[in-house]
Inverse folding.
């Protein structure tokens, strides 16, 4: 019977309630006895061959017949009014097809604005015009011929400058607005009564995503359908964005993302380049390609906000009694911020907590979600501060955390955790790193000028996923299987793990399953973000496979004239009293019939909190002469429910740790304050970790199914591994040297400064 | 426009190129070989790695006009139908591929390394691949893939003798 149920979901730290249409019943939790043929097994990616041969087609690889090339003219000013645009010379250039700008472009609502080309441009890199031409070169040349009359306006790009009195006020209510707060207990009193307290300020710099494939779209319009290929984490989100911008019904928009080269949160929805390509495609009836360059990517395609964070912590009798945390995030021109106080609100059981976070607008490129947005920045500050408090209280930092990490309830909602093994993560990680070797004040390193230390940090994050998500399983007459699901593979291995779940539940070989995803023509599914893909889509796939299997067994019972209860489907064959008949043979008797299994994601329990937990341990050496940090070993111990594919899971964790190391040590957007220009817009100036920067990384999973979370018992793990890395490293550096670096990345200059402050060098 | 003749993956190709055009653009847009990726156009990421007269280069930094009369090999030449070559196989088996955008470049760079140095040390592998950025993996499985490929190619070489 079709009915409506309530569900609670968490997305990137925000909890919300939704209504879900359901039919039938969910499956009981999948078995976890080691007997499953696919789940829990390391499998190579089923699409790896396409990727290693160069045959996989990414958005930037599509060159359609007669395709036009669009390029975007971007503001050279941090803030200016666009008074006049003269495109005569550009349009006279042979091969130029058209120019779009604020004076000739229809209203196209985009993320809270009603146009894509604003009258007042508000950061260097903001879109001013777009050109379509027969080839890339001509389009680029045309950009240089466009004359724009700008009236320059006072700007501010720096977070702390924007907080000050002299900065220009960019919004009618100022640059600063409150975006969230949480209060429990009485921190004032607790701090007054504390034996020890710390009062510390942390800063984190802006991190740039730099997925290897830049943002881009190819749009094609045939008079009826707009088809858009886009490098995206959410084909349905792009579809919604296009519907809003272009006023087309869903049925006339199809968004496809077959292969894509990483997103990390920056590709969660439609971009201005998508709208530009679509507008031109609709105007000219041709395919139009708009793909950003690396420099454009780093100006206008999102970032992790820089933050300023103040923390006051108190302890009494060896326990944390109070945490106050105030945070300011540079949102650029973004309309939201990710909340850095999230971990403070929920990670530890502390009676008195008072947090507040503020959004600060500036004339810099806008934030977008970046792998555990807010939590990476917040965990750096919180977990560093906990170590500072432990040091002041004379308690081992891991011991101090253990005293607060056992709570079974979410402190904000009071809901019980569906499952939680944080203490187990501590145990596994501490053993693996050799925590008992840790000495207060660190130890001698491999040379007289090198100090060695160990540090750790922990993490909380969502990852429970939720509805709506749909899947279908078609079994063709030859016994081969097509799994269609509402999702896309952004590089995490989604195709592979969904195929495993399908093969497992259905009773066929992995190789027999073809996975069709990344297409808005299929059933709906969530964005590949918020660590929610597997936990959202996986259970729907299982249900669809189960439905198909029941139908197949019923069909086989008729064909073989055997009671259904005596039949099983195993490795692609119907098994009856020891005899195996290949599925294709059974279905051959009912040729050209198709079996279609359907599956949906059932709601989350509305009285449970579904969270992921983990801890990371870092061992480092620090050269006290140069300030250089050598990360030697990272141990990550994670509680993310059941692991479907240990190979792909471990590689996701390692990748998250490496991005965490980048955030901790080298990645930093530098913006010139006077001009508002990004000085680190390419991969030479912006230091993404290379193979030479990588330490030994040990990944350990608790690997216990979360039976109350969903029918698979699996939770997400895209984001958990990046959250605690920077704090674990900073804590190891402090242990090694006695110097506390409170600004990430911990560059040599900052380490040297902290060493000087601590009196270790002058 | 300049006309060039170049041998690409064993086939003779004649095409006209712009004076400022990169080999990467020629391969991707004129010769229908988008396996080599464009991630920076600046020689910083290695996604566009190809072999030019057997020497590893960033195709984005090579002027197309300068390859007249020369020989280029791209990732597309390595597999024989569905049969992967040992380097590609090793990348698949070790799980060294996530989004795969960096992979063609890494596969080609690994070929160049193993041709020069069939038994590279860990440090030599790291040095050789430090110009190939990957934003998804932790690089560990990539290094493992190179080691595995070296081993198979070495054993395979012995078989041939
Ligand atoms: S595209 Fe050639 S090195 Fe990056
Ligand atoms: S696998 Fe995505 S960049 Fe390497």
């Amino acid at each position: 019977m079709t009915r409506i149920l309530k569900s609670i979901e968490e997305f990137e730290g925000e909890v919300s309630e939704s209504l879900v249409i359901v039919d039938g019943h969910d499956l009981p939790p999948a078995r976890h006895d080691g007997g499953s043929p696919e789940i829990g097994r390391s499998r190579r990616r089923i699409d790896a061959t396409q990727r290693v041969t160069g045959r996989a087609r990414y958005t930037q690889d599509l060159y359609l017949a007669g395709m036009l090339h669009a390029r975007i003219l971007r503001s050279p000013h941090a803030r200016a009014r666009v008074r006049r645009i003269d495109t005569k010379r550009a349009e006279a250039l042979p091969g130029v097809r058209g120019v779009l700008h604020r004076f000739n472009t229809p209203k196209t609502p985009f993320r809270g604005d009603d146009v894509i080309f604003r009258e007042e441009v508000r950061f260097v890199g903001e879109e001013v015009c777009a050109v379509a031409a027969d080839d890339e070169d001509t389009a680029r040349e045309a950009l240089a011929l466009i004359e724009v009359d700008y009236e320059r306006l006072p700007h501010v790009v720096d977070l702390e400058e924007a907080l000050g009195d002299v900065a220009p006020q960019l919004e009618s209510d100022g640059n600063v607005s409150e975006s969230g707060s949480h209060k429990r207990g009485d921190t004032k009193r607790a701090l007054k009564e504390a034996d020890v307290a710390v009062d510390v300020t942390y800063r984190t710099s802006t991190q740039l995503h730099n997925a290897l494939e830049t943002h881009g779209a190819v749009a094609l319009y045939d008079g009826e359908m707009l088809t858009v290929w886009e490098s995206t984490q959410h084909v349905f989100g792009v579809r919604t964005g296009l519907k809003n911008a272009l006023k087309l019904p869903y049925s006339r928009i199809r968004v496809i993302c077959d292969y894509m080269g990483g997103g990390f949160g920056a590709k969660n929805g439609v971009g201005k380049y998508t709208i530009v390509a679509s507008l031109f495609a609709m105007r000219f009836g041709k395919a139009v390609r708009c793909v950003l360059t690396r420099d454009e990517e780093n100006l206008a395609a999102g970032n992790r906000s820089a933050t300023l964070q103040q923390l006051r912590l108190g302890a009494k009798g060896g326990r944390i009694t109070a945490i106050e945390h105030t945070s300011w995030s540079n949102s650029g021109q973004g309309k939201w911020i990710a909340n850095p106080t999230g971990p403070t609100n929920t990670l530890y059981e502390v009676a008195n907590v008072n947090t507040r976070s503020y959004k600060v607008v500036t004339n810099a490129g806008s934030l977008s979600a970046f792998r555990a947005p807010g939590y990476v920045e917040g965990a750096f500050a919180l977990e560093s501060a906990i170590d500072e408090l432990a040091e002041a209280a004379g308690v081992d930092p891991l011991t101090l955390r253990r005293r607060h990490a056992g709570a079974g309830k979410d402190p904000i909602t009071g809901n019980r955790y569906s499952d939680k093994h944080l203490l187990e993560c501590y145990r596994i990680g501490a053993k693996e790193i050799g925590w008992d070797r840790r000495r207060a004040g660190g130890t001698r390193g491999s040379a007289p000028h090198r100090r060695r230390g160990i540090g750790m940090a922990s993490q909380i994050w969502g990852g429970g996923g939720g509805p709506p998500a749909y899947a279908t399983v078609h079994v063709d007459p030859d016994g081969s299987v097509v799994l269609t699901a509402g999702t896309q593979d952004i590089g995490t291995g989604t195709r592979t793990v969904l195929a495993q779940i399908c093969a497992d539940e259905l009773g066929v070989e992995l190789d027999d399953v073809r996975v069709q995803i990344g297409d808005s023509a299929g059933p709906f599914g969530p964005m590949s973000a918020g660590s929610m893909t597997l936990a959202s889509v996986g259970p729907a796939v299982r249900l669809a496979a189960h439905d198909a299997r029941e139908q197949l067994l019923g069909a086989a019972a008729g064909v073989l004239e055997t009671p259904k209860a005596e039949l099983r489907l195993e490795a692609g064959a119907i098994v009856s009293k020891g005899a195996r008949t290949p599925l294709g043979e059974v279905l051959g008797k009912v040729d050209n019939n198709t079996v279609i299994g359907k599956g949906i994601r059932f709601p989350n329990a509305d009285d449970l909190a579904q969270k992921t937990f983990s801890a990371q341990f870092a061992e480092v050496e620090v050269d006290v002469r140069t300030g250089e940090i050598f990360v030697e070993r990272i141990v990550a111990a994670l509680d993310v429910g059941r692991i479907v594919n240990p190979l792909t899971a471990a590689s996701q964790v390692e990748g998250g740790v490496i991005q965490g190391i980048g955030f901790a040590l080298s990645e930093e957007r530098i913006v010139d304050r006077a001009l508002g220009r990004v000085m680190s817009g390419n991969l030479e100036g912006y230091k993404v970790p290379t193979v030479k920067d990588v330490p030994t990384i040990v990944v350990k999973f608790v690997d216990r199914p979360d039976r109350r979370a969903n029918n698979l018992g699996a939770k997400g793990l895209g984001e958990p591994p990046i959250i605690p890395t920077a704090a674990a490293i900073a804590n190891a550096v402090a242990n090694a040297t006695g110097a506390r670096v409170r600004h990430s990345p911990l560059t040599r200059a900052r380490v040297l400064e902290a060493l000087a402050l601590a009196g270790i060098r002058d | 426009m300049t006309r060039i003749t170049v041998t690409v993956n064993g086939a003779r190709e004649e095409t006209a190129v712009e004076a400022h055009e990169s080999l990467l653009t020629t391969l991707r847009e004129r010769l229908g070989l988008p396996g080599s990726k464009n991630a920076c156009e600046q020689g910083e990421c290695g996604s566009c790695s190809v072999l030019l007269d057997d020497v590893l280069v960033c195709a984005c930094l090579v002027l197309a006009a300068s390859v007249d009369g020369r020989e280029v090999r791209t990732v597309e030449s390595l597999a024989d139908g569905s049969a992967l070559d040992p380097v590609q196989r090793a990348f698949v088996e070790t799980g060294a591929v996530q989004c795969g955008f960096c992979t063609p470049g890494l596969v080609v760079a690994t070929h160049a390394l193993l041709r020069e140095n069939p038994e590279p040390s860990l440090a030599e592998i790291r040095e050789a691949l430090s110009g190939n950025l990957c934003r998804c993996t932790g690089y560990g499985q990539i290094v493992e893939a190179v080691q595995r490929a070296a081993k198979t190619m070495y054993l395979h070489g012995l078989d041939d003798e």
